[in-house]
Amino acid sequence: MVSDADQVAELLARLRAGTPLVQCITNAVVTGFTANVLLALGAAPAMVDNREEAPVFASVADGVLINLGTLDAEVAQTMRLTAEAAGAAGTPWVLDPVAVGGLPLRDRVGAELVPLRPSVIRGNASEVISLSGAEGGGRGVDSTASTEAAVDAAASLVGRTGGAVAVSGPVDRIVDGSGVRTIASGTPTMTMVTGVGCALGAIVAAFAPYAETPADAAFAATAVLTIAAELADEKADGPGSFAVQLLDALHRVGPADLARLRVG
Amino acid sequence: MVSDADQVAELLARLRAGTPLVQCITNAVVTGFTANVLLALGAAPAMVDNREEAPVFASVADGVLINLGTLDAEVAQTMRLTAEAAGAAGTPWVLDPVAVGGLPLRDRVGAELVPLRPSVIRGNASEVISLSGAEGGGRGVDSTASTEAAVDAAASLVGRTGGAVAVSGPVDRIVDGSGVRTIASGTPTMTMVTGVGCALGAIVAAFAPYAETPADAAFAATAVLTIAAELADEKADGPGSFAVQLLDALHRVGPADLARLRVG
Amino acid sequence: MVSDADQVAELLARLRAGTPLVQCITNAVVTGFTANVLLALGAAPAMVDNREEAPVFASVADGVLINLGTLDAEVAQTMRLTAEAAGAAGTPWVLDPVAVGGLPLRDRVGAELVPLRPSVIRGNASEVISLSGAEGGGRGVDSTASTEAAVDAAASLVGRTGGAVAVSGPVDRIVDGSGVRTIASGTPTMTMVTGVGCALGAIVAAFAPYAETPADAAFAATAVLTIAAELADEKADGPGSFAVQLLDALHRVGPADLARLRVG
C-alpha cells in the first residue's frame, strides 16, 4: 500500500521511465493545460475524444480520463462507449464528475458511468456526495462541503465500483476498501487556476498503470501534484505565474521534494 | 454614476467579497484564459454552455457572458435560450459580438440577440457598428474603425436594449442613456494576446451584479482590466509573459493602482 | 529558393509588415496557444471553423491551416469544404495530419484532403509516412520514426500535391520537387509543450502569402520557430516557462538571432 513519500517517488520514477499514453476525454476549458500537465510530468497525452476514435483508442491507451466538465449528448455517449471499451480492455480509467449535483445532463451521465466501475473517482466533496446519491449539493464547480463530510459517500461509491475515490480539498482523502488515507500538502493557490483539479484526474490516470491498486495511484498523484504546487507557490507572484511554475515544478519534482509530504 | 477610480475600487471590493458566479458561453479559443481571468479577479467562473444545462444555469448565475467567437447552429440556439432565461430571471448578461460584420452565421445570431436586450454589449468599433446595422465592416476580429466613430452606433443599440455599450479600443467609450464615458488607460500589448477583449466581457458580467447600472459595470470592468494591463506591461518582456503578468495583476490590483486611471 | 538565415529574415520582415490573416481550423487542445503564436509572430489569427463561415472565410484569408488533431464527422466536412474553397480562391493552405496512422476517422479525412492539394503538409515522420500510404505507424501524436525515414514518403506526397512536405523532428526536413532542405536548430523542450508542432503549421500558413514557393514558407517557418525555441530555452526553467518564453521570443526574434540557424 502506497502511503509515504518514498513509495510515491518510486512510482514517479516508473511513470517517467514508462511514458504512459493517457487518453483524456475532458472539458473544453482545460484541454491544453491538462495536456501540458501530463507532458511536464513525463506522460504522453492523447486528447482523443470523438465518437469514432475514442472507444478504439481506449484499448491501446495505458490510462483513460473521463471528465464531465463540458458535456453534450454526443460527448456523453462517447464517454459511455469509451468507459466500456476501457473496462473490456482492462485499461484503468478515472471519472471526474465535475459539477455533478443539480444540473440535469451531468447528473444523468455521472449516474450512468458509476456502474461501469471507474478505477478511480476524483472530485471535490460536493461532487462525491452528489454522485453517491446522498444529499449534498454544490455551487458550480466549487465545493461547499469538507472532504471529511464526503468519506461516507466515497465509501458507498467504493462499494459499487470496487475501486477508489479521491476527495480533493485542503485535506485530500483517498478512500478504498482498505480504508482512508489523507494528504494535507498543497496550497490555496491551486483553487485560483482553472483545471488544477481536472489535472489531478489526468495524473491519477497516468499513475494507474504502475500502481498495484487504484488507491495507490490516487495517493501518488495527489502527493506529486500537491508538492509541485508548494514548489510553484514559492516562485509565483499570483495565479498567472503559479500556473506556469506548476508545470515547471511537475517536470522537476523529485524524491527530495516529495520528502515534505504531509500525510494524515 | 461610477466615473472615477474610488468608485471603481469600491465596486471591486464588493465583487471580491461576493465571489460572483459568472456563467460563460464563450468561444473555444479563450475558455481557459477567460476562466483564469475571472478566478484571478475574485469571481467564480462556470463555463456551462450545453443546451440542456445553460438556460437552467442562467437563473442561478450572478452574471452571464455570451460571446460569439466560435459558433455553430446548436450553440446559437443555446445562446438564444440562455439569453431568454437570463432575461426572465433578471440575471444581467453581456453580449460580445466577436467578428460580427460580414460573416453570415454570426451576423444572424447577433441580430437575434440584440432584441433580447443584453445589459451590456462589449465589442470593438467595427463590431459595434456592424451590430447596429450601420455601414462599417471589420476584418476578422480586428477593428478598422476608431471608437469615436462607433458612438452613434452604440447609442442606437442603447436605444434598443435599454442597457449600455462598451466600445473597446485605445480609448474605451462606455455609452448609455446618460451619455458617454471614456477611459484612456491600457497598453498596446493587450492586442497581442488572444482573449483580452473577450476577458473584458467576462469581467463586465462579474461586476454587473454589484453595479447600479450596466454602464457602471462596464466602466469598472474596463478600468480594472486596463490598469491591470499597465501593471502587467511593466513586468513583461513580450506577449507571453504579459498574459501571465496580467493574471497576477488582476489578482493584486487595488485602490492605489486604480488611482492612475485616465478618464476622458 | 529560401535556404539561409538572411532570406528567412527578409520573409519575416515582410510577414510582420503585412500582418497576414491566418484562418485556423485546428484542434480544441491548442486553439488558444496557436492564436497567441500567430499574434506574437505578427500575424492576425482567425479561428473561424464552423461549417457556415469557414469556407466563405477561406477566400478572404491570406493563409489557411487545417489541423486534424480533434475531429468529428461535421468538422471533417467543414475541412473538406474549406480546403476546396481555399483551392478555388488561390489561398495557400497547410494540412497538419495529427496522429494519422491507425485511427479510422483521421486516416479517412487525411486521405480525402491530400487530393485537394495542400500547399504544405506538416507532420512528424510517422504521420507523413502514414499519410502517404506507406507502412509505418505511430503512437498517438508521437513519432516513432526519424525524419530521414520519411523523405521517400514526403516525396511521394509532393508528387501528388505539387506542394511541399515539412517533416518535423530533431532534424527538420522540407521536401519539394527541387529536393530536400534540412534544419537542425531547435530544442528538445519543444516536445514537452502541447501545440508546438501545431503552431508550426500555423506559422507556415502565415509565411505562405510572402514566399515564392510552399517549401520556402515551410523553411522560413521552421527556421523562425526553432530559433525562437532556442532563445526561449535560454530563459526557461521547465516546460511551463518555456511556453511563455517561446511567445516572447517569437515576438522579438530578428536577423541577429536567425544568424544562428543550423542548416543541413
From TrEMBL, chains A, B, C:
GO annotation terms (biological process): thiamine biosynthetic process; thiamine diphosphate biosynthetic process
Metabolic or biological pathway: Cofactor biosynthesis; thiamine diphosphate biosynthesis; 4-methyl-5-(2-phosphoethyl)-thiazole from 5-(2-hydroxyethyl)-4-methylthiazole: step 1/1
E.C. designation(s): 2.7.1.50
Alphabetical UniProt keywords: ATP-binding, Kinase, Magnesium, Metal-binding, Nucleotide-binding, Thiamine biosynthesis, Transferase
Source taxon at top rank: Bacteria
InterPro entries, per the entry: Hyethyz_kinase, Ribokinase-like
Recorded catalytic activity of this chain's protein: 5-(2-hydroxyethyl)-4-methylthiazole + ATP = 4-methyl-5-(2-phosphooxyethyl)-thiazole + ADP + H(+)
UniProt binding sites for substrate: 47, 195
List of residues binding ATP: 122, 168
Cofactor requirements of the protein: Mg(2+)
Molecular functions per Gene Ontology: ATP binding; hydroxyethylthiazole kinase activity; magnesium ion binding
Matches recorded under SUPFAM superfamilies: Ribokinase-like (SSF53613)
HAMAP family: Thz_kinase
The protein's role, per its UniProt record: Catalyzes the phosphorylation of the hydroxyl group of 4-methyl-5-beta-hydroxyethylthiazole (THZ).
Similarity comment: family membership: Belongs to the Thz kinase family.
Name assigned to this protein: Hydroxyethylthiazole kinase
UniProt organism field: Flexivirga aerilata
